[in-house]
Amino acid sequence: MASHIVGYPRMGPKRELKFALESFWDGKSSAEDLKKVAADLRSSIWKQMADAGIKHIPSNTFSYYDQVLDTTAMLGAVPPRYNWNGGEIGFDIYFSMARGNASVPAMEMTKWFDTNYHFIVPELGPDVKFSYASHKAVDEYKEAKALGVDTVPVLIGPVSYLLLSKPAKGVEKTFPLLSLLGKILPIYKEVVSELKAAGASWIQFDEPTLVMDLDSHKLQTFTDAYAELESSLSGLNVLIETYFADVPSEAYKTLTALKGVSAYGFDLVRGANTLDLIKGGFPKGKYLFAGVVDGRNIWANDLAASFGTLDSLEGIVGKDKLVVSTSCSLLHTAVDLVNETKLDKEIKSWLAFAAQKVVEVNALAKALAGHKDEAFFSSNAAAQASRKSSPRVTNEAVQKAAAALKGSDHRRATNVSTRLDAQQKNLNLPILPTTTIGSFPQTIELRRVRREYKAKKISEDEYVMAIKEEISKVVKLQEDLDIDVLVHGEPERNDMVEYFGEQLSGFAFTVNGWVQSYGSRCVKPPIIYGDVSRPKPMTVFWSSTAQSMTARPMKGMLTGPVTILNWSFVRNDQPRYETCYQIALAIKDEVEDLEKAGINVIQIDEAALREGLPLRKSEQAYYLEWAVHSFRITNCGVKDTTQVYLSPSFRRHCLAFCFIMVASIIIF
């Protein structure tokens, strides 16, 4: 029984690539130094998978910045502003496209489907001169082979690449990007030809757009693309990989009828309904890569449940045609649980990061082949049972409070105009008041103070004094600029989600649980493992302190429940909306305590509201219903005189002085 990994994190267990990249960008190390770190990381990843017994090990999933940008480089689709003169694309052009340079801006960056990862959007048009300009896919295959590891080279599929692109500046917005298919396929053919010559026996095309709502024209493009590639792919086993959601029935029909394709990969975690399509008919003699190990969360796999799913699939596709896989690339999870030496032991037993998921995949494959590791399965079952029965997971009071929310939409009792009149009488603001989004720059000195306080190198009194001094500076600056509604600048906060999670029950935190967001930027999502509640006020002291420094209104600053949910690793033992409602109740408590403390303007940031939006339109209304309901819960109990801002914008600490509110703000 074979095993497969869709992709693997690139940053390294201790963010080695991040530091190497930033050192190179700062001119502190050479290109060769960066390449050495990258080669060492790739080598260790391939060796790790080989040692774990994985048969289908991916290559070309490593990237210095982004896999879509790598494809843009492969196709030579460099926008003219970067003055590329042809030849193999090197770091100068590559990083200019990713980050911009002194004279031209970077290419646009946007979310990779519904994940927290970002990709660089290709800029295309009728005048783009495509050429084979990066041999990275072939080079990395050869590199792995020289190390004794025969890998499966991974390419972003040609149709998904075009569907993820945008018309370049100056090109009509209605330009049909799929019309460029005939121009990029010759380059794909060249890459395939070189991979075959190098000895590759498998190739993986990632076509994740197949899970989207695609019309018949777009689906036909997949048929046309692989029909054109068929002769080039002859002699190779070709895997088309999909992930992040169910494959719609029409897309499933298109996918399983593609010419030259011998294997299909499906996300059976987020796309469980795809199982029904497989059971309803799967092409005879084709391979099924069954993504049963979650690539987007950190929970240990329920091996017994996954084994049951795989066993039923084996009866449909045949023992020799079933491959155990991850649901998607492990890029979206943390790297290695071994590095979490400070994590609570019981909670740690419930988790699996990328390195552990590789082991889970192989354990399932071995079990299906009749070589079940009884001790490993037994340990897993014990951990699953522990998680289900642990008193730290369940809080009956929280569950009762959340259950009581049903039956109300939690709108505020009076209408908007009534509230605005009451708020105006209370706040006496001008017609167009000014404010800031909230956070001021996180200086080196501020970070030092927080770090030393956490390490107990300074006392609590010294810490409070330092933070108060910073707040005082921020308040004075805003008064000098005649800002109407002030903020305290959030100098005490490390991150807009982590800060709150650290003060809520049901959350756990890692030391090295970093996940790539884009380029060298990594985030460390909190882990929501149990019912969420607020043991005590979280922001009232600092907001009250700031209000005492000014006669002007001081905004209370909170992160909303949907953003906290979407920027965390969320428990998978109950629906996401239930966890969101619990967080909403905790934020509601904080809102009402701020009001009692004399804070009459409260901003609730929902920067990640859209990130949880399902990929399929048919599922979006339900998500928006409970997401908006969660926000309403947070502020349904305040007085008419209290003004509540919803800020759906994303704010960065590097935006030092934004004194007119430029993001969209909705006032309640």
Please describe the topology of this protein:
Blueprint lengths: L1 E2 L12 H10 L5 H22 L4 E3 L7 H8 L16 H9 L9 E3 L6 E3 L2 E2 L11 H11 L4 E6 L1 H6 L2 E2 L13 H18 L3 E5 L9 H18 L3 E5 L7 H8 L6 E5 L6 H7 L6 E7 L9 H15 L4 E5 L18 H5 L4 H15 L5 H16 L6 H8 L12 H12 L16 H11 L5 H21 L17 H4 L3 E4 L6 E4 L2 E3 L3 E7 L6 H8 L7 E5 L1 H6 L2 E2 L5 H21 L4 E5 L11 H19 L7 E5 L18 E2 L1
Parallel strand pairs: 1-12, 2-6, 5-7, 6-8, 8-9, 9-10, 10-11, 11-12, 16-18, 17-19, 19-20
Antiparallel strand pairs: 3-4, 13-16, 14-15, 20-21
Helix pairs in contact: 1-2, 5-7, 7-8, 8-9, 11-13, 15-22, 17-18, 22-23
Brief description of this entry?
With 668 residues, this protein is an alpha/beta fold.
Number of helices in the DSSP assignment: 23
Report the strand count: 21
| Molecular shape | globular
- Name the quaternary structure: single chain
Rg to the nearest angstrom? 26 Å
Strand content: 5-15%
Largest β sheet strand count, sense and barrel closure:
8 strands, parallel
Helix content: 40-55%
Q: How would you classify the helix and strand content by structural class?
A: alpha/beta
Distance between the termini: 58 Å
Residue stretches low in confidence (pLDDT < 50, at least 5 long) are 650-664
> What is the overall pLDDT average?
94
Instruction: State the strand order across the main sheet.
Output: 1-12-11-10-9-8-6-2
Architecture overview:
This protein has 668 residues and is of the alpha/beta class. It is built from 23 helices and 21 strands. The protein has an eight-stranded parallel β-sheet with strand order 1-12-11-10-9-8-6-2. It is globular and about 75 Å long. Mean pLDDT is 94; it is low at 650-664.
